Automatic annotation (TrEMBL):
This is Uncharacterized protein (TIGR03083 family). SUPFAM superfamilies: DinB/YfiT-like putative metalloenzymes. InterPro entries: DinB/YfiT-like, Maleyloyr_isom, MDMPI_metal-binding. It comes from Actinoplanes octamycinicus. Coiled coil: none annotated.
């Protein structure tokens, strides 16, 4: 399965997930900054269905501050009913758009990380696929993860995903399940408790709080 097929399947899985949630679950704070579960879903839909003139206008109005414009677009998209958001994500599951710099691995990583931003606070199993986790881990440490991982965060450390046979880097070790390594690399401090090794303390110092979208 190539990365585009992985992306399409993850979009459909996310649509199924959100469609299964009740109103209280949709209002639950996610792991992603101040966003609710539904607003995270709004972001995922906006990323594929909101690439139009209105998205660019928001970017201009926010002085080309991407995080701020992105948050506003997600919130606006999240005003729609959850069923409509799920339908939009399914409709665009196979959208061929490839974002600059981060490419398809960035899209896959966005889906996997934000999927966990939804599932973890709700106590739902992640069921992430090892091959997809490897793609995201390679992407996050590969130098193209603009907006995902500051370059200095993984520098000088060795990361080991103990459940998928993946490793990268040299120096004090940071090891644990692939899902936890992925989340910690992207700034989710909640995953630090699942990591071990003599590099964890230094790694933790490089992750600010609170988490950002």
């Amino acid at each position: 399965m190539d990365v585009r097929e992985m992306i399409a399947e993850e979009r459909r899985r996310t649509a199924d997930l959100v469609e299964s949630l009740d109103t209280e679950q949709l209002r639950t704070p996610s792991l992603c900054g101040a966003w609710t579960v539904k607003q995270v879903m709004g972001h995922l839909v906006a990323a594929v269905a909101g690439a139009n003139g209105s998205a660019f206008l928001l970017l201009v109005r926010n002085g080309f501050r991407l995080h701020r414009a992105n948050a506003q677009l997600a919130a606006k998209m999240a005003e729609r009913p959850a069923g409509e958001l799920a339908a939009m994500l399914r409709e665009h599951a196979e959208d061929p758009f490839c974002p600059p710099i981060v490419g398809y691995p960035g899209q896959l990583t966005d889906l996997q990380v934000h999927g966990q931003d939804i599932r973890r606070p709700l106590g739902l199993p992640h069921d992430l696929r090892p091959d997809r986790l490897r793609v995201s881990l390679d992407f996050l440490v590969g130098g193209r993860a603009v907006g995902f991982v500051p370059r200095r965060r993984p520098a000088g450390l060795r990361f080991e995903a103990t459940d998928v046979g993946w490793s990268w880097g040299s120096g004090p070790a940071v090891r644990g399940p692939a899902e936890a390594v992925m989340l910690a690399l992207t700034g989710r401090r909640v995953a630090l408790a699942e990591l071990s090794g003599d590099g964890v303390a230094e790694f933790a110092r490089r992750i600010p709080a609170p988490d950002r979208p």
